[in-house]
Q: What sequence folds into this?
């Protein structure tokens, strides 16, 4: 719930800067639902930056007060939607089945879904990281997903908004495991095609090192996306890692 209360100038700066930066990289901005149309319209001339929602309901329409459907996001100008973010899983009790239902809804509406998975600090300290992530990956995806309509984002819960970041070695281990799981389930060619993003206190100072890790295809940027200077520096790091 950011981007308002005097921060619209920063939103415009991020949007304008992203349009200039997205010449040879893909940039996706996922603002609150109230700003999707505003940002989509502002970016319509550039054509290189995509806009997404932060969540959607599994139903197309109906008596679901306070919810937003995937079709509503699409009609507002969104092309993508984030699903299964750790805050949705923790704050709203969303499990893998719920995420999978929303994923089907996103695809029904023609949206590309960014499906988030991640372990808590307790799970990490218990040595359960790969098991937890494997279960989330399996349970959150349906059998018909493809690299063209689904992106996977690994966001360790313990590193979100804490300033803590997984080491490049930690990220390499996890992303290698996720790649292997995808290849085992969907076949080598399809499994290799999925984009794997890392999210968790990505900052200008660590973005280049994280995105240089094998099987890391980009970043899911949280707090650093609220400041144009920081976000655009991360975009520049991504360009340099191509």
A:
């Amino acid at each position: 719930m950011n981007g308002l209360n005097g921060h619209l100038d920063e939103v415009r700066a991020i949007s304008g800067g992203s349009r200039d930066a997205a010449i040879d990289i893909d940039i996706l901005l996922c603002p609150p639902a109230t700003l999707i149309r505003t940002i989509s319209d502002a970016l319509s001339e550039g054509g290189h930056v995509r806009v997404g929602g932060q969540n959607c309901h599994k139903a197309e329409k109906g008596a679901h007060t306070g919810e937003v459907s995937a079709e509503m996001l699409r009609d507002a100008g969104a092309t993508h939607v984030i699903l299964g973010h750790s805050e949705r899983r923790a704050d709203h009790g969303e499990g893998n089945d719920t995420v999978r239902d929303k994923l089907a809804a996103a695809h029904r509406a023609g949206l590309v879904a960014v499906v988030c998975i991640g372990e808590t600090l307790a799970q990490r300290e218990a040595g359960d990281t790969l098991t937890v992530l494997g279960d989330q990956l399996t349970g959150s995806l349906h059998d018909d997903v493809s690299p063209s309509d689904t992106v996977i984002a690994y966001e360790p819960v313990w590193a979100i908004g804490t300033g803590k970041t997984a080491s490049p070695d930690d990220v390499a281990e996890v992303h290698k495991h996720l790649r292997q799981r995808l290849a085992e389930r969907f076949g080598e060619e399809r499994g290799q095609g999925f984009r794997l993003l890392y999210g968790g206190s990505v900052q200008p100072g660590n973005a280049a090192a994280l995105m240089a890790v094998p099987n890391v295809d980009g970043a899911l940027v949280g707090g650093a996306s609220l400041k144009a200077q920081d976000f655009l520096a991360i975009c520049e790091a991504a360009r340099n890692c191509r």
